[in-house]
């Protein structure tokens, strides 16, 4: 099931895990396995990827990163197939992503004897990249009556949906806001008027999808397969230059 109506679908370069993720979700729809259970599996996959990097099994690590990305797509697909949207799952997923991203980069720093400062800059860059992508994608989904579990402005805890506890949503929201609040504020300040725009064209969304988490993990995987793990941290620092380019395109032309 798509997050967008058919006429607004675009080629999402970060969403290569959607098809296998949909197959996984379809296989599990009539079982007792929950979307949160799938999220937990992608956390485990990420942890094993870290272990593989530490022991320099780079091909295995690359596979596990792609598996993590696929499972990341499967949890949302399963939620939509079971018709069980939840803020609990949405925040749990996002919190897991940011913690794993930090751990991935710290692992690369360790195996390359890298700089903590550069690692922080790479992490900050990765999160801003993902925030730009998610900001525009969520705006598009909300403007065309697509999936609305993610909100454009995360300024207060949402009202719990059927089947989840408000206390759990409140707790996870606070953790989510602690991790993501600063990135959301920075991107919003850079493009406050984006929510008032017409639906973004497909070419723009495809272009900005290179900042999606799936594409970021794909870049890590390719560098690992090429034995270029030394360049992962510098790559993501430099990769951040397109943030201002994409925001400039949106503000000037869209």
Task: Tag the structure with descriptive keywords.
CDP-alcohol phosphatidyltransferase family protein, transmembrane helix, 254 residues, EC 2.7.8.-, transferase, CDP-OH_PTrfase_TM_dom, mainly alpha
Care to describe what's here?
- With 254 residues, the protein is mainly alpha-helical.
- The protein has one domain (6-253): Four Helix Bundle (Hemerythrin (Met), subunit A), CATH 1.20.120.
- It has 10 helices and no strands.
- It is globular.
SSE map:
Blueprint: H1 18-28, H2 35-54, H3 58-81, H4 87-112, H5 116-143, H6 166-190, H7 202-208, H8 213-225, H9 232-239, H10 242-253
Query: Structural class, from secondary structure content?
Result: mainly alpha
Largest sheet: none
- What proportion of the residues is helical, as a percent range? 55-70%
What does the oligomeric state look like here? single chain
CATH architecture: Up-down Bundle
- Strand coverage percent: under 5%
Distance between the termini: 28 Å
Might you state the CATH topology name? Four Helix Bundle (Hemerythrin (Met), subunit A)
Number of helices: 10
The CATH homologous superfamily is named: CDP-alcohol phosphotransferase transmembrane (TM) domain
Mean pLDDT score: 94
What's the shape? globular
Strands, count: 0
Number of domains: 1
Gyration radius, in Å: 18 Å
Just give the CATH class: Mainly Alpha
Pfam families: CDP-OH_P_transf (PF01066)
Transmembrane segments: 21-44, 50-71, 91-111, 117-136, 203-225, 231-249
Enzyme class: transferase
Keywords: Membrane, Transferase, Transmembrane, Transmembrane helix
């Amino acid at each position: 099931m798509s997050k967008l109506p058919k006429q607004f679908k675009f080629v999402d370069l970060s969403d290569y895990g959607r098809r296998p993720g949909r197959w996984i979700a379809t296989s599990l729809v009539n079982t007792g396995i929950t979307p949160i259970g799938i999220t937990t599996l992608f956390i485990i996959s990420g942890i094993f990827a870290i272990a593989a990097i530490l022991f320099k099994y780079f091909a295995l690590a690359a596979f596990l990163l792609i598996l993590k990305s696929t499972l990341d797509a499967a949890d949302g697909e399963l939620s939509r197939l079971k018709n069980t949207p939840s803020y609990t799952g949405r925040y749990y997923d996002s919190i897991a992503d940011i913690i794993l991203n930090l751990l991935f980069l710290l692992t690369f720093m360790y195996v390359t004897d890298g700089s903590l400062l550069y690692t922080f800059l790479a992490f900050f860059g990765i999160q801003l990249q993902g925030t730009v992508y998610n900001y525009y994608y969520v705006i598009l989904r909300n403007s065309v009556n697509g999936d609305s579990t993610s909100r454009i402005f995360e300024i207060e805890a949402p009202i719990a949906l059927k089947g989840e506890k408000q206390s759990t949503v409140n707790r996870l929201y606070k953790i989510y806001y602690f991790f993501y609040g600063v990135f959301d504020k920075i991107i919003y300040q850079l493009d406050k008027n984006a929510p008032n725009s017409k639906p973004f064209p497909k070419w723009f969304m495809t272009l900005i999808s290179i900042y999606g988490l799936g594409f970021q993990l794909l870049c890590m995987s390719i560098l690992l397969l090429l034995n270029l793990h030394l360049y992962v941290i510098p790559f993501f620092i430099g990769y951040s230059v397109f943030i201002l380019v994409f925001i400039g395109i949106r503000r000037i032309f869209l």
